[in-house]
Amino acid sequence: MITNLMKMTTRERDNYEMLSKDSGVRSSLVEKFINFKQGDVASNTFCYVVDTADDLMETANKNVDKYIREKQTEVDYEKEIEKAFALKNESAPSVPGKTSEIISRTKHYLLKPQLSFERKVDNSYFQFVPMIRHKENALTQLHPRIKQLQTEYAEYLKKNPKIEYDMNASVLHIKTPHPYEDEIEALNIDWNKMVEEVSAITSTLPAAVTESEFAFIDKLEQLDQFMIEIEGCKELAIDLEYHSYRSYQGFTCLMQLSTREKDYIIDTIALRSHLHVLNRVFTDPKVVKVLHGSRYDIQWLQKDFGVYMVNLFDTGEAAKVLGLKASLANLLKHYCDVTANKQYQLADWRQRPLPEEM
């Protein structure tokens, strides 16, 4: 016995010492030693195999029974998700029954807009690759590491055309700076001048929706005209409608943009591959972009369109500085005496054409 112990590896010796301290294991070994018969080795081995197979079959049967029981009482998860969303927004004024109807209206028959995207959706774990190729309003050129990552990604796509299904895509870990890091850092606001300009503005309530000039943009020629109209503006108000209810990563469906004179709605599904032109204005430091709670909007713009912002004013952050409740509904009520209607907050913004009520 001592000789055999000396021949053991360290790992085998550790396992032996651990098992030898277990009274159950010790008793079982002693019993087997007492009852051991040299001629029964083959039959004993066969019995062990049979016992093991029986145990595995019993475990499998238990799991099958458990699955059948759970299946019989299966929860309708879609309804539960809708309930959760409704509870989250139950304080918002709405028309009874309408929200659920709007969410489920296109549940079964809407063709996925993602299928028509020129740039295919990447649901892999590949490192995020900025799609920007040219910097508008640039102080410095696009960083070489961004170009390197784009090249590596293009090569990867050639070898893996089904990357949208590849959840094991390699991550390159090429550290890249923000494309507009230098421009954002160089932004210098003349606060005294800004106070003078703001003080000179006559505050007026926005016109009623039915009286405001409005344009819906879903064609390239309309987008070109839109860019001409907004390039002379000093400030723009922007909001996005994003869909993630039936999408792994989600995507931007609409952009609402307002100047002091006109309101625009841009179909970001139809014009998805062309909205990089917004960088001409969105990265212009002389134009103030006004958003509320912009954290996710900024990410969506970068991910979906390669659009960036320089000189951003977030009314949500401003409200916190002023000691006000940061919700948009509260600010609308406080400054404009408008009660926000969140009836369509959970609407399916993928629908085309949009229903009249939306």
UniProtKB/TrEMBL annotation:
<dbReference type="Pfam" id="PF01612">
    <property type="entry name" value="DNA_pol_A_exo1"/>
</dbReference>
<dbReference type="GO" id="GO:0000467">
    <property type="term" value="P:exonucleolytic trimming to generate mature 3'-end of 5.8S rRNA from tricistronic rRNA transcript (SSU-rRNA, 5.8S rRNA, LSU-rRNA)"/>
</dbReference>
<feature type="domain" description="3'-5' exonuclease">
    <location>
        <begin position="214"/>
        <end position="358"/>
    </location>
</feature>
<dbReference type="GO" id="GO:0071037">
    <property type="term" value="P:nuclear polyadenylation-dependent snRNA catabolic process"/>
</dbReference>
<dbReference type="InterPro" id="IPR036397">
    <property type="entry name" value="RNaseH_sf"/>
</dbReference>
<dbReference type="GO" id="GO:0071038">
    <property type="term" value="P:TRAMP-dependent tRNA surveillance pathway"/>
</dbReference>
<dbReference type="GO" id="GO:0071036">
    <property type="term" value="P:nuclear polyadenylation-dependent snoRNA catabolic process"/>
</dbReference>
<dbReference type="GO" id="GO:0071044">
    <property type="term" value="P:histone mRNA catabolic process"/>
</dbReference>
<dbReference type="InterPro" id="IPR002562">
    <property type="entry name" value="3'-5'_exonuclease_dom"/>
</dbReference>
<dbReference type="InterPro" id="IPR012337">
    <property type="entry name" value="RNaseH-like_sf"/>
</dbReference>
<dbReference type="GO" id="GO:0071040">
    <property type="term" value="P:nuclear polyadenylation-dependent antisense transcript catabolic process"/>
</dbReference>
<dbReference type="GO" id="GO:0000175">
    <property type="term" value="F:3'-5'-RNA exonuclease activity"/>
</dbReference>
<dbReference type="GO" id="GO:0071039">
    <property type="term" value="P:nuclear polyadenylation-dependent CUT catabolic process"/>
</dbReference>
<dbReference type="GO" id="GO:0071035">
    <property type="term" value="P:nuclear polyadenylation-dependent rRNA catabolic process"/>
</dbReference>
<dbReference type="GO" id="GO:0005730">
    <property type="term" value="C:nucleolus"/>
</dbReference>
<dbReference type="InterPro" id="IPR045092">
    <property type="entry name" value="Rrp6-like"/>
</dbReference>
<dbReference type="GO" id="GO:0000176">
    <property type="term" value="C:nuclear exosome (RNase complex)"/>
</dbReference>
<dbReference type="GO" id="GO:0071051">
    <property type="term" value="P:poly(A)-dependent snoRNA 3'-end processing"/>
</dbReference>
<dbReference type="GO" id="GO:0003727">
    <property type="term" value="F:single-stranded RNA binding"/>
</dbReference>
<protein>
    <recommendedName>
        <fullName>3'-5' exonuclease domain-containing protein</fullName>
    </recommendedName>
</protein>
